[in-house]
Specification:
418 residues; alpha+beta; elongated; 11 helices
Length: 418
């Protein structure tokens, strides 16, 4: 009987363990790695089919879930439309509405053919409310037609460094032509946002518009008044949120690209195909997950020329046939080197190691002039070069010639007989 009771208890134990293992939630917090002490996140923990976390400072991809696979991007397209408008036009210009623009599907401002608007007002309509008719009006104003503006968008994408992006519409509505569908990748979308907030000459204007809570304006005729409200919930969701743009079409699903600044670090999250109705909130969950992951795991470490010089002191550099005064010895002259450059701040993940490699000439022929480059110090992070410092001679070394030796002997003899 005792044996039967023991078997029964063991059966219940294993049954309970099995049930618990099968009821663990699919979406869990990032797990800490025992090897590095940093958190890790699994692609399966995100709702988005395609996602990228990027360091805005360098463009380095910190996390990717199918980040280089092409997919429709819906109204996140409008960040490109906006930055091109800011770079190529005067915000005070008047825009006349065409029949083509006014016939765009929802979501739209409701403009009528022949109406005129100040371009700056339309940029708020574009980015806060994501109006499709506004996007077409802006495109036609800048390039004369949507087709010509399409070319402008694709040229700009190539300049930014996008690898697999193809624009057809200025508003992001699903479209296809002989070259393919309107699409991008999560990595390319993050690069475009990086350009808009860090590299574009109009970056400050872009941020000002996309951070505005609401904007009210009238057409130039003064016959109609419009009010726009910012629908980017991320701006009030996390401290340090900078900007962002939502998007949705039947083919694209919910999409989002946003940026956050914290302790001097700026991170970008790009999400494509992040759920379909009724899962509108998935994009906010994924954005919070990735931004929190970034802030907890990546921090700046400084690299200074002084660190390089300290390491270089252990490496001897000799100048053959060198002379710096005194007895003209035949032995090589040992000289010091200095590192040129400024302090660099490198964003690194917890557990990653910055490595320094010196490439320094062990022997050089005289003469050597102060400032001559004798080598280079390279810093790498996870195998990628992140900084380098030229190693320069700290002093002059002239050539030990026969004349120098004779001059030394003569002066020595004269001094002894004085």
């Amino acid at each position: 009987m005792k044996k039967i009771g023991f078997v029964k208890k063991m059966f219940i134990f294993f049954l309970t363990a099995t049930v618990l293992s099968q009821t663990t939630p699919c979406f869990v917090c990032a797990q800490e790695s025992e090897e590095t002490g940093s958190e890790e996140i699994r692609p399966s923990e995100l709702y988005a089919r395609f996602a990228v976390l990027m360091d805005a400072g360098t463009g380095r991809v910190l996390f990717s879930k199918s980040g280089q696979k092409p997919a429709p991007m819906a109204s996140t397209t409008k960040i490109m439309t906006c930055i091109l408008a800011l770079e190529n036009t005067d915000p005070a210009e008047e825009v006349t509405v065409s029949q083509e623009a006014s016939s765009q599907p929802e979501v739209r401002l409701g403009m009528q053919p022949g109406q005129t608007f100040i371009l700056e007002d339309l940029l708020y309509s574009l980015m806060l409310e994501s109006h499709n008719d506004t996007a077409v009006s802006i495109a036609e104003h800048i390039s004369g037609s949507v087709g010509a503006f399409q070319d402008l968008m694709n040229v700009k994408a190539e300049e930014i460094g996008c690898r697999d992006t193809y624009f057809i519409t200025p508003n992001g509505l699903d479209a296809q032509d002989e070259n393919g569908i309107h699409h991008t990748t999560a990595e390319d979308l993050a690069l475009i946002m990086r350009y808009c907030i860090t590299e574009s000459p109009a970056k400050e204007e872009f941020l000002a518009i996309t951070r505005t809570e609401s904007h009210t304006f009238s057409d130039c005729q003064g016959t109609s008044t419009y009010s726009c409200t910012n629908h980017n919930a991320f701006l009030s969701m996390m401290e340090g949120a900078l900007t962002g743009k939502t998007g949705f079409t039947n083919n694209a699903g919910y999409c989002y690209v946003g940026a956050l600044e914290s302790e001097g670090r700026t991170f970008i999250v790009a999400l494509l195909a992040c759920g379909w109705p009724n899962n509108k909130g998935y994009k906010w969950s994924d954005t919070r997950t990735l931004m929190t992951y970034a802030m907890n795991n990546w921090h700046y470490e400084e690299i200074t020329p002084g660190q390089t010089e300290t390491a270089a002191e252990e490496e001897a550099v000799y100048v053959t046939d060198g002379y710096t005064g005194g007895y003209p010895s035949a032995f090589p002259v040992k000289i010091k080197v200095t590192a040129a450059g400024e302090t660099e701040k490198i964003l690194k993940k917890n557990g990653e190691e910055l490595r320094m490699k010196l490439a320094l000439d062990q022997s050089v022929a005289a003469p050597v002039h102060r400032g001559d480059q004798l080598g280079v110090c390279t810093w790498t992070l996870d195998g990628t070069e992140v900084a380098s410092y030229p190693l320069l001679a700290e002093q002059d070394v002239s050539t030990r010639t026969f004349a120098v030796c004779m001059n030394y002997v003569i002066l020595k003899y004269i001094n002894q007989n004085d």
